[in-house]
Amino acid sequence: MAHDHAEHAHGNRRRLAVALAIVVVVLLIELLGAWLSGSLALLADAGHMTSDAIGLVVALVASGIAARPATDRHTFGFRRVEVLGALVNGALLTVVAVTVAIEAIRRLIAPGAHVSGLPLLIVAAVGLLANLVAFVILRGGDRHSLNMRGAYLEVLGDLIGSVTALLAGVVILTTGFVRADAIASLLIAVLIVPRAVALLRDVVHVLTESVPRDTDVEQIRSHLLETPGVVDVHDVHVWAITSGDSVFTAHVEVEARVFENGETDGMLDRLGDCLKGHFDVEHSTFQLEPASHAEHEGESHR
Predict the structure, then answer these.
(1) pLDDT digits (tens, 9 = 90+) for 54-89
(2) I want to staple 239 with a disulfide (CB 3.0 to 4.6 A). Which of 62, 80, 209, 246 is the partner?
(3) Which secondary-structure segment (H or E) carries 114?
(4) What's 2-207's CATH class?
(5) For the domain 217-301, what is the CATH superfamily, name and number?
(6) Phi, psi of 38 (to 5 degrees)
(7) What span, in angstroms and rounded, lies between the C-alpha atoms of 146 and 83?
(8) How many C-beta neighbours within 10 Å does residue 270 have?
(9) Whole-model pTM over 0.90
């Protein structure tokens, strides 16, 4: 499991570095295109890509820090830094979406800016191609890390923005309807917000140490109770250090013979194997207790 995570982390950093290089190049092209065409859609997408570039740098730095080994002061290591990176990405996405939406509404109410359709179309097409490449590079890494998911959503938003800007360019060239640029910008903002909110919700879920969404505590308890010699399981706690890295602790009441016959080592092995095999939980801690010990525990431990 640790080896797999190291491989994922190394692969994620490589993906992030390549995606960052692509985003920076496209950002510069879009800024030039926005200046030449007067397009808010391109400027909005360039603003979004600026947040992407910052977000990808944050994700890259967070991924590197998260790979550092645990210490006596950071006993779980630094993997939660990935979650903080995702938090920054989510906040950046939200700020960009709100800013773009406000400017788009202003242009819809009082249009006045001239928008050249051809430069908008050409730059949007280049951006679409580059964002598609970055999207493919990052795809897959989002399943193993909230940090990577934040970066993936950033680039996905860019991809959608490029498609929208491209359509706006086509409309302006064929019909002269300049408001298409503002409408495209507003659509970009509307599409960004739900993704930003979903990312921030998942970050809060991890930071508040809530039970991971794909984990059923009762199902885990039931599996453990099926282990021969186990009488009861209580004081259960499940949380995640970062996405895909769950931690489990519990008090396990066992039959007296487990202690009398020196079977505690075997019991711990069976319980740990149960969690690792059925629920992919690598970090587990069990406090074995004789059934009679429950009478000495407070209500909060039940």
Answers:
(1) 777 877 777 777 777 878 887 777 778 878 877 887
(2) 209
(3) none
(4) mainly alpha
(5) Cation efflux protein, cytoplasmic domain (3.30.70.1350)
(6) 75, 20
(7) 6
(8) 15
(9) no
